[in-house]
Fold:
Amino acid sequence: MKKYNITGMSCAACSSRIEKVVSALDNVESCSVSLLTNSMGVEGDVDADTVIEAVKKAGYGASLKENARGDRKKSSAKEYEEALEDRETPILKRRLILSVIILLPLMYVSMGGMMWGWPLPSFLADNHMSMGLYQLVLTTAVMVINQKFFISGFTALINKAPNMDTLVALGSSASYIYSLVQLFIMSEGLSQGNSELVMSAMHELYFESAAMILTLITMGKMLESRAKGKTTDALKSLMKLAPSTARIERNGIEEEVYIEEVEPGDIFIVKQGETIPVDGEVLDGEAAVNEASLTGESIPVDKLAGDKVSAATINTSGYLRCRAVRVGEDTTLSQIIQMVSDAAATKAPIAKVADRISGIFVPSVISIALITMFVWLILGKDFGFALARGISVLVISCPCALGLATPVAIMVGNGMGAKHGIMFKTAVSLEETGKADIVVLDKTGTITKGEPKVTDIIPVTDLDENDFIRLAVGAEYRSEHPLAFAIMENCKEKSIEVPEAKEWKGYAGNGIEAIVDGYRVAAGKLDFIKTKCTISDEVKAISQRLADEGKTPLYFSKDGELIGVIAVADVIKEESTEAISELKGMGMKVVMLTGDNRNTAEAIGKVAGVDKVIANVLPDGKEEVVRELMTRGKVIMVGDGINDAPALTRADIGIAIGAGTDVAIDAADIVLMKSRLSDVPAAIRLSRQVLKNIHENLFWAFFYNALGIPLAMGVFIGITGWELNPMFGAAAMSLSSFCVVTNALRLNLFNIYDKKRDKKQNKKINIALDDIKEENKMTTKTMEIKGMMCGHCEAHVKKALEAINGVSTAEVSHTEGTAVVSMDTDIDNEILKNAVTEEGYEVVSIK
Structure:
């Protein structure tokens, strides 16, 4: 996507016009213009100069953003900070101050002197022509100060794309020109000595209305600009985290350089209290690093040699010497900023309705104003009265409120998410997440920690538990198996000394054997340990219970005697059960997907509290399940691995755990930087609150115009006597957009982790999950077999394999020398191999 800076926009009609013009260009796939950030994103193979020229022809300015030209050296954080700098508010503030300084003496004379009898200088009190000229000069000064309304408004009108500035320019110009005509009539009356004509013309002067309209609209624009600036506060605070300098080590000498000068491969130093300048890898030293700026997690993380560090995180204690890996806009911080900015540049589906209305709103208002004038003239009212009604219609109408209703809420919501480590990639994902019916969770790494831990230690002799662990870890110390690492980690936590192992021997897929403290210790699976010692029925029952709980029991023997069982399992994350409970409290159906066997999966699912467990699922099977669930309702898929990417892409909304793979993060619509499942319900809450805020904004915008325009037309004059002065219409218009933006800012007060206000969706939809089966989601293994010569050989191998409990089918081919085995559950390779070997054939490999 190429990004452009846009200038000259004043309301939603402007952004709608630019989108229409650019979208009409050849090879443009999509175009999205943000009134909030004055930017445009264009997808498609189209030359930047062609786009810029098209925007200019429409009456606006455009320039390609710097990073869009491929300048990756410049820090993205600094670049976006410059782009979001509020340059508009100071200009509007100066215009407002000058306008008010001139307006006060104008209003004193026109309103105070004429209507309320306030004292006036003799040259004004005794000379009506002088009073008229006085008003003309001051009003002209206010119009010159606010000339931008006229330049923008009439340029847009000439280009057949009228906007809000057009309404303001037409309204104030009409007042000014009408008053100018009355001034000439007054001059004619004076020359004729016709005092009645002079006084009549004097009362028809609307100079103060023209000046007041411009001043009030400028005030509203300034308030709106300031409020809009606050909507990007969260994003700006992220940008300010980026340090401006880095301490680089070159030729053994430390020197401080600007952050833009740091190159990948440079060695940089970070001392206590300093901010890490770029993403890198620790070479030397150790420190506690506060990563709250990226993850929202305030507890410092210990960093040692080999660990990764990220830009904008703070070294709270210690010393680090690191190698720069990613710099400029490649750093994690810059990518987060880019993600939030990209989301702001996209449009939510709900915004398209407002955009369509905004596109025809201004021409419709101009037509209504003209019709209003003609109707009042036909009804016998004088031209001044009819003109006042027409001007009121022009200045009270506000397309800005419609145009800002959605983007301001999206921007604030994105900022809120970023502050808590929840990154929405698009406005669509922020809007749609809260509408989901089903949440699908990958088990490993999402619900569970993704690494095995020791859960049970069961000595079955009078051996002390620590002595049992000492023998166990001594035997397992040389093993590279993940389950062995879990036992070693448990030993380290208990500070148990690891004894030396001799004559260590490993049996792939079965177990190990070694001499520890003079004893021959064996460890492994049940089938393996049976060959070393006798297993009692009591121990078998314990083992079955552990297996039913989703744990993997490892058996240990010493000199031919069973000494105990250690159970290892991928344990559930601390917050997973609570997060799933919160999801169900919101009315979601929660499904757990896993490639694990059914016993393990059911055990984890029961503890976690999910509604449905689907086990034995291959990567493409996950995508199939998500596809099937999407027929029942909107689906969120949460995962972290490469194998989750197809399902993340398929789902209505894909959520990636931040600690997951780059592939999963790229495939997702939302990234959880803290890697906590509790952020999933938080993201849904935020989405629902943003959508609620958008509905409130749109209601206000539609309600305001639906009530304000008829009031300005004078519809209620005959019923209630309500008559709207154009100045009050301008005041209402100036405050309408401010109210919409202020309402969006209330989102900053919302607590996304507060579950007290959670409500279930009021939707009657068939999302019963009991009928979802695991067919076509079986585990398959391909065996390469030597020795098969004919169809009889195939039959022998097929029969042997299908006799194994858990094998569904076996497709055997003697010509290919293979057997493709489909299983309901994961079966150990040794069991498959033994079944084929016993028939007299050689198994070369199993994949």
